[in-house]
Amino acid sequence: MAYKKIEQYDEDITNKLMENYRSSIELLGEDANREGLLKTPERVAKAMQYITAGYNMDAREVLNSAKFHESYSEMVIVKDIELYSLCEHHMLPFFGKAHIAYIPNGWITGLSKIARVVDCFARRLQVQERMTHQILDAIQETLNPQGVAVVIEAKHLCMMMRGVQKQNSVTTTSAFSGQFEKNETRSEFLKLITADLY
Ligand SMILES: Nc1nc2c(ncn2[C@@H]2O[C@H](COP(=O)(O)OP(=O)(O)OP(=O)(O)O)[C@@H](O)[C@H]2O)c(=O)[nH]1
Ligand SMILES: [Zn+2]
């Protein structure tokens, strides 16, 4: 199976995480035995496994699972794919949108698979730059298209609720391969992801 079902949690890992989160709650000055917190270690253990489930997902397998022969050779753009990830430095969320395009070279993939590839790499401890490249590489290697473009815009909670405390900064990262290395193609992509066509 390409990805972990939401309800499936490894019992051993869940139990070990629960012990750790119980200790963390106490170390942070709380009473882990008070009513509202009794089930919290288990909830957090499951939530953390869910938001890091990307380690159990294989992006190439996801893309190959719906790969179709097709002669369409214009740009395919899936934009505004929401993403939630965890920064690997503070384990705090960063979240935003991914805009992805590819120009097929005989093969297309199911549109939902593009969004699943985003989840696959977002649901890990990440830096935005690496995630951007991982998404591009998975699509490039699996579909062998004429080019791939990935733009990610995200807000990092580690820059908002602590540290430098900037509430409005947005980080944009991008990666381009093949035809998208040409200015003309890249400009068309950037124009289309900012256009309000829907
Ligand atoms: N390049 C990059 N940096 C990130 C990302 N997520 C978080 N960071 C940064 O990682 C850096 C870690 O820096 P450190 O100085 O080791 O950590 P820190 O003392 O907590 O830093 P401050 O956040 O500035 O308080 C910070 O500048 C974060 O803003 C990311 O996706 N990409
Ligand atoms: Zn951080």
TrEMBL record:
Gene3D superfamilies on file: 1.10.286.10, 3.30.1130.10
ATP-binding as UniProt keyword: no
Keywords: GTP-binding, Hydrolase, Metal-binding, Nucleotide-binding, One-carbon metabolism, Zinc
Listed EC numbers: 3.5.4.16
Identification of the protein by name: GTP cyclohydrolase 1
Pathways per UniProt: Cofactor biosynthesis; 7,8-dihydroneopterin triphosphate biosynthesis; 7,8-dihydroneopterin triphosphate from GTP: step 1/1
SUBUNIT field: Homopolymer.
GO molecular function annotations of the record: GTP binding; GTP cyclohydrolase I activity; zinc ion binding
Annotated Zn(2+) binding sites: 87, 90, 158
Domain GTP cyclohydrolase I stretches: 19-193
Catalytic activity reported: GTP + H2O = 7,8-dihydroneopterin 3'-triphosphate + formate + H(+)
PANTHER family per UniProt: GTP CYCLOHYDROLASE 1, GTP CYCLOHYDROLASE I
SUPFAM superfamilies reported for this sequence: Tetrahydrobiopterin biosynthesis enzymes-like
Keyword Nucleotide-binding: yes
Record GO cellular component, one term: cytoplasm
Similarity-based family: Belongs to the GTP cyclohydrolase I family.
Enzyme class: hydrolase
Family annotation (InterPro entries): GTP-CH-I_C/QueF, GTP-CH-I_N, GTP_CycHdrlase_I, GTP_CycHdrlase_I_CS, GTP_CycHdrlase_I_dom
GO term, biological process aspect, one: tetrahydrofolate biosynthetic process
Gene that this sequence comes from: folE
